[in-house]
Specification:
Shape: elongated
Number of domains: 2
CATH architecture of the largest domain: 2-Layer Sandwich
CATH superfamily of the largest domain: Bira Bifunctional Protein, Domain 2
CATH class of the largest domain: Alpha Beta
Strand order of the largest sheet: 6-10-11-18-17-16-15-14
Radius of gyration: 29 Å
Number of strands: 18
Largest sheet: 8 strands, mixed
Helix content: 25-40%
Number of helices: 16
Structural class: alpha+beta
Strand content: 25-35%
Distance between the termini: 7 Å
Length: about 500
């Protein structure tokens, strides 16, 4: 951070000292505004100039100065609070010469308190006629030039507090984000789900295939992992009889950063006993339609240049069928029969230019790679991909008709995974065997594989009812609903490299 002060910053600090020398507290407390800018507009915006002249109502407002217009013995001020902006008029004859003299030293960015009546200007703008003016907070740094705000993207993310002051669009994104989480909570409350909080620090990294962050607890002298998913704790609660449960909270994955990835992100996870993954697909469609209609006002939205329709039924298609439908390979290479073997999938990968495949790579992992190469980016409208291979789904229930695949779906929108759900594996013997496969992969160098969670297996041994569960990425959902191309635009304080 640059320690050199600009001339403007030096001037503001000199003003700060002068205020203190006059006995004026530049960081005053105890003055509470009676109104916000929005409330003033709601209550008096329909009043004419003549009606306002007959009204003796007084208001008080607190806000940040966004602009001054000086006219000798009077000044128009634009004040901004959490609800918007309103104009105030400060006249020397009304506030007194001494107060007006001090007021004239105030800067854009200072936070003021004003009391007075209301009137309309010659341009018919509703305005507070200040009778009292108090400085609440002296701003020591100038705001960016008002027409451009923070034009440097790095600065925008690093100094979100300035971005929110200057950029109404940024503020609206995060207001929308809050509405999304409120809607989701109410959606599940109405369906008799219980909201819970589960541990952020885990003794074993598990619940998803991801590289974890590590930390150390000094008193217990033990290694802990920031959670990559709350799944195993939430399913313990289902074992305990909380048959409908959800959590909205942070996950942490020690992986790359991109327009779709941040090291910490917000997930919704929910579990319902006696439900199947097909029922969760129905519920997910209902949730996405509802949140779009509630927050955006429409079920058909525009994201970047694509039109995305949440109203029509979401397509449901197997991973293999999606490769055949959306890929650009010779159709003979991507028939259901051709993709049913590891050699067949390997041939298709070679045909689309993927080289250097590990000879020990399973059919399931190769099919997932082929899907990412050939189909994923084409899934613009909401699409459920189903029939996942067992090898890449170590917590999912095997399909009764074909045990090589599992009862699982992932929801893709605009070529991005938004949700992942499945009928849960509740057979403790099968689950332990799959954990052991994961542990062997980890021992062989797979940093995303997990260890055997003996306590979770023990919980399953007490009996978990047939259950379906799902995780939904809140950040990516908000990106869609606010038409933001980067996950950093929907996270208030995304991770950044340290400043030089």
């Amino acid at each position: 951070m640059n320690s050199q002060l600009s001339d403007e910053e030096k001037t503001r600090r000199e003003k700060l000292m002068q205020l203190r020398e006059k006995g004026i507290n530049p960081y005053r407390n105890g003055l509470k505004p009676s109104h916000t800018a929005q409330v003033i507009r709601d209550e008096w915006n329909d009043k004419s100039r003549e009606e306002l002249e007959k009204i003796d109502d007084k208001v008080s407002i607190g806000g940040r100065v966004m602009a001054f217009r000086h006219f000798g013995k009077a000044t128009f001020v634009t004040l901004k609070d959490r609800t918007g902006s309103i104009q105030a008029y400060v006249a020397r004859d009304k506030v007194g010469q001494d107060v007006f003299k001090v007021f004239k030293t105030f800067d854009v960015g200072d936070i003021l308190y004003m009391e007075g009546g209301l009137f309309r200007t010659k341009t018919d703008e509703l305005t507070v006629s200040a009778e009292k003016v108090e400085l609440l907070t002296k701003s020591l740094r100038p705001l960016p030039e008002k027409f451009h705000g923070l034009t440097d993207v790095e600065q925008k993310y690093r100094m979100r507090y300035v971005d929110l002051i200057m950029n109404e669009d940024s503020r609206k994104v995060f207001e929308t984000r809050s509405k999304v989480t409120q809607y989701i909570r109410n959606f599940f409350y109405k369906r008799d789900y219980l909201e819970v909080e589960t541990p952020m620090m885990h003794p074993i990294a598990g619940g998803a295939a991801a590289r974890p962050f590590k930390t150390h607890h000094n008193t217990l002298d033990m290694e802990l992992f920031l959670r990559v998913a709350p799944e195993l704790y939430l399913k313990r609660l289902v074992v305990g009889g909380i048959e409908r449960v959800f959590e909205i909270n942070r996950n942490f994955r020690n992986e790359g950063i991109s327009i779709r990835h941040n090291p910490e992100f917000t997930m919704l996870e929910f579990y319902e006993a006696y439900a199947t993954y097909e029922e969760l697909m129905d519920l997910t469609e209902e949730l996405f339609r509802g949140v779009a209609k509630e927050v955006v006002g429409l079920t058909k939205i525009t994201y970047e240049e694509a039109e995305i329709d949440f109203k029509k039924p979401f397509e449901r298609i197997s991973m293999a069928a999606a490769i055949a439908k959306y890929g650009n390979l010779d159709k003979a290479l991507v028939t259901e029969e051709a993709l049913s073997t590891a050699d067949g999938v390997r041939r298709a990968l070679y045909a689309c230019g993927v080289q250097g495949l590990d000879s020990k790579m399973s059919r399931g992992h190769m099919l997932e790679l082929l899907f990412e190469e050939q189909a994923e980016k084409s899934l613009i409208d909401p699409t459920f991909i189903i029939d996942y291979p067992k090898e890449i789904s170590f917590l999912s229930r095997a399909n009764d008709e074909d045990p090589s695949r599992v009862d699982r779906f992932e929801l893709f929108v605009y070529g991005r995974e938004i949700a992942n759900g499945f009928s849960e594996l509740n057979d403790p013997i099968d689950q332990k065997e799959r954990f052991e496969v994961q542990a062997a992969a980890k021992a062989a160098g797979d940093e995303e594989a997990c260890d055997v969670d003996e306590d979770y297996v023990r919980a399953l041994e007490y009996g978990m009812p047939p259950t379906a569960g799902e995780g939904i990425g809140i950040d990516r959902l908000v990106m869609l609903l606010t038409n933001q191309s980067s996950i950093r635009d929907v996270i208030l304080f995304p991770h950044m490299r340290p400043e030089a």
